[in-house]
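Translate structure to sequence.
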C-alpha cells in the first residue's frame, strides 16, 4: 500500500518536529533546509526584517537562546489534501534574553496552532497562532 499525500506530509513535518525537540540549533537549521521550500511563505509575526526560511530559522534561534530546554508536544494533527494542522503545547524555562527581557528562570507553558501547506513534498506556506499573552503573563511581563 502506498503512502498517501497526507501521510507523506506528516512524515516530512515530523523530521522538523524531531529536530526542534533536539535542542540543537544546527540540527533545526538543517531540518528547515531539508523540509521547507526555499520560497517558503511564513504568515506569522516574527521579529526583525527576515522572511521565509530565514525568518523560521531566526524564530528557532531566538527561542533556543531564551528557552534552551524548549519542548513542543503535539496534541492534535489533522491532515487533509496539501495541508496539515498541528495543535501544540510548548514548555520551557526562561534562561536567556527574550523580547528584551533578561532571564527570569520562570517556566512557561503555552499553546499554538500551525497550518502548513505542502507543495512538492516540502513546506511551502505556514500560518501560525501562538498564545503570546500566556507566554508573557507567565514571564511576569503582563499583569492580568
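Result:
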Amino acid at each position: 500500500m502506498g503512502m498517501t499525500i497526507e501521510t507523506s506530509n506528516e512524515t516530512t513535518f515530523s523530521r522538523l518536529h524531531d529536530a526542534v525537540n533536539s535542542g540543537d540549533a544546527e540540527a533545526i537549521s538543517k531540518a528547515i533546509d531539508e523540509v521547507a521550500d526555499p520560497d517558503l511563505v511564513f504568515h506569522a509575526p516574527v521579529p526583525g526584517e527576515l522572511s521565509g526560511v530565514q525568518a523560521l530559522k531566526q524564530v528557532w534561534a531566538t527561542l533556543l537562546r531564551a528557552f534552551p530546554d524548549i519542548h513542543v508536544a503535539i496534541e492534535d494533527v489533522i491532515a487533509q489534501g496539501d495541508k496539515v494542522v498541528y495543535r501544540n503545547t510548548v514548555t520551557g524555562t526562561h534562561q536567556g534574553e527574550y523580547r528584551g527581557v533578561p532571564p527570569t528562570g520562570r517556566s512557561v507553558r503555552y499553546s499554538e496552532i500551525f497550518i502548513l501547506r505542502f507543495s512538492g513534498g516540502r513546506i511551502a506556506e505556514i500560518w501560525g497562532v501562538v498564545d503570546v499573552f500566556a507566554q508573557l503573563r507567565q514571564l511576569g511581563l503582563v499583569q492580568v
